[in-house]
C-alpha cells in the first residue's frame, strides 16, 4: 500500500466535495477518478450528474493534494475540464470508493463528447486474431467510439443511447464493471456475442447475408459496384476511387456534378502515396477527430479524374470506425466515400430510409442495427497559413462548445440560409451545431428544427433572446419569427462574420473587419459581400466596400458567371463596354441586349458589392468557369491554377474606401489579348487583391488608429489569398485574425449572431 494511504483514524481525515464541468462524460473520466482515488487510498464516490461530474473524496490531507494534482494534470486524452470547484468538509466516514448511479438534476447540463475515432488499443485488438473482439466491427472503449451520434438524453449512460437495446453478455459486463479494465463504464461496450451486427444486402432480388459482410462488400467494390455503407453519423456512398467508369456512374446516379468527393485512404502511408503530406496534416489525419483534410494531390496518381473534376486538391480521411478499418484492410485501395444523401438533403441515417432513398444509387448495402440517433456529416478541414481551418464543422467537433470570454444568458442564433449552423449559449459556453446544410429544401429545414429542439433539450437551454439574419426571406429568419415569447434581433450578415472571427480568437476590442463572401443582405437592401467594417461586439460602421455593380438576371448570374462578367463590364464601363468586344462576341447579341435592359431598368438586376462575384467575373473572362455547378466553383478553379512564381499584379482604383476593379478588368482583358496564360492572370488577380485590401486597411488604420484586422467570409477559404494577406498585413504591423475553429463561410455566422444579440439586448 502507498505510504500516503496508511489508515488513519477519522480525526485525521478530511473530505473534499469536487464538482467538475467540461467534457467529463463519455471520455473515461469516472474510471480515471476511481483509479486515482484508489492510488492514494482515498474513500468516497464519483457520479455523473446532468451538470458534470461530482466527486466526494476523503483521506489524509497529503493524499487529497496528490489526488487533486492528478485529477487536473493527468486527464484522460479526451477529457477537458472547463471549471472545477473544491469545497472542504468534515470526513463522512466512507469505507471504500464507489462509482455511484448517475443523477439527473433538473435544469443542469453537461457538455457531450463528439464521436471519437477508433483508438490505437482498439485498432490493435481488432486485428489480433487471439483477441475476444478480433474482427468485430463495433469494438470501442472509454477512449473511443460513438458518442453524440447515439445519445438521446443526458446524463451520458447506456440507457440514454441507442445501445440501450443491446444487453451486455457476461464478458462485456465484467469489463464494464471492473475498474481496472479499459472498458470500465464504456457505454457503447459490446462484442460479437451481444452487440450490434452487420448485414450485407446485394443482388437482385436483394439478398440479405449476415456473415462475411465485410468480405462481400470488398468483393462488390472490386467488381465496380456502388455501395451504401452505414457509418457513424449516417450513410456513405462508396466505390472505387481509381475506377473512372464507376466514379462517373456514381455521379450520374447521384446527379452530383461539380463538387469534389472525399476519399478514404487505408492509412497514412497510402495517403502519402497519393498526396503531399506535411507533419501538421499527418497529425490532423490521425487525430481522434478524424476529419476530411483537403490535401494537395501528387501528379499522375491513379485517382479517377471524376473524383475532383480536375482540381489539384483532394479531400482525404482515414478510417475512423472499426468497420472502416476492416473494410480498408480487406479492400486495400482508396475509396470514394461521399455523403449518402440525395441532392442537398440531410444524410440518410436509418436502414429503411437508405433502402428507399439510396436504392436508386447503390447496388448493394452494408448496414448495421445500431441506430444513429443524431445524424452528423464528416467534418472538412484544411491547413491554411500553418494552422487548421475548419471548413465544415460536424463529426468529431460538434457539439463541443466554444468557450466565451464572458458569461452569456440563454440565446439562440438561428444562422444563415446556406451552410447553416445554429448556436445556443449558456454560461461561458457557445454550442455551435454541426453543419446542417442549405435550408431551402424541406427535409433540411425539418432537420434544422429537430436539431434546435434536441440541443435545447440536452443542454437545457430555453432561449428568450433569438438572433437571426437581416435577410427577410431566409427560412432561418422565418423560424426566428415563429418563436413566441422571445426578444428578436436581426443581425447584419457581415457583422456576424466578423464578430464570429473576433470571438473565436478572443479579440474583444474594435477591429477592422474584412468580410468577403458571396451574398449577405445589407442594411441598404443591396447584396453585400466585399465589406470593410469597423466593428465590435455591439455595432459596426461600414467604411468601405467593392464598388456596386449590377447582377443581370439576379440569382442566374451566380450560376452563370459569364453574365456576371458582363454585369461588371456594363456597370463599370457603360457604353465603353465595346472595348471588350472580343469577350462580348462570346455571348449571343440578344442575350446581351436583354441583360443591358435588365441593368438599365433595374429589373432583376440587384446591386452587389460581393467579392465572390468578382472571382466569378474574372473566371468567366478567362474562360475557366463560364457556367458553374455550385456556388464558389469559379473561385476554387481560379485559385487552383495560380502560378505562384508570378509576383506581378493588377490594379484597383481606390476612391475613399471604395475599391473599383475597373483597371483590373482591363488588365485581365489586355493580358488575354496578348496571350498571357490563365495561370499568370490568376496569380496577378490574387496578388492585386492582396495589395488592394492592405491599401484599404492602411488607410482605415491611419484614420482610426485601429491595428487589429479580422478576416472572415467564404472567400477566405482561399488558401493563397489568406496566406498572402496574413503575411502582408502582419509585415505592415497589423495583428491579423482569421477563422479556424468555426468556418469562415456561413457556417460561422450563428456564433457571431449570439454575441451581437447579447451586446444589444441583454448586457
Ligand atoms: Zn478504443
Ligand atoms: Zn459482449
Ligand atoms: Zn456569408
TrEMBL record:
Similarity-based family: Belongs to the carbamoyltransferase HypF family.
GO process annotations (BP): protein maturation
Record keyword Cell division present: no
PANTHER family the UniProt entry points to: CARBAMOYLTRANSFERASE, CARBAMOYLTRANSFERASE HYPF
GO molecular function: acylphosphatase activity; carboxyl- or carbamoyltransferase activity; double-stranded RNA binding; ligase activity; zinc ion binding
Top class in the EC scheme: ligase
One Pfam family, short name: Acylphosphatase
Catalytic activity, reaction form: C-terminal L-cysteinyl-[HypE protein] + carbamoyl phosphate + ATP + H2O = C-terminal S-carboxamide-L-cysteinyl-[HypE protein] + AMP + phosphate + diphosphate + H(+); an acyl phosphate + H2O = a carboxylate + phosphate + H(+)
Active-site positions on this chain: 30, 48
Pathway: Protein modification; [NiFe] hydrogenase maturation
Taxonomic superkingdom: Bacteria
Gene giving rise to this polypeptide: hypF
EC number(s) per entry: 6.2.-.-
InterPro entries named among the record's database cross-references: Acylphosphatase-like_dom (IPR001792), Acylphosphatase-like_dom_sf (IPR036046), ATPase_NBD (IPR043129), Carbamoyltrans_HypF-like (IPR051060), Carbamoyltransferase_HypF (IPR004421), DHBP_synth_RibB-like_a/b_dom (IPR017945), HypF_C (IPR041440), HypF_C_2 (IPR055128)
Domain Acylphosphatase-like stretches: 15-101
Record-annotated YrdC-like domain positions: 211-396
This protein's record includes keyword Lipid metabolism: no
Keywords from the UniProt entry: Hydrolase, Ligase, Metal-binding, Transferase, Zinc, Zinc-finger
Stated name of the protein: Carbamoyltransferase
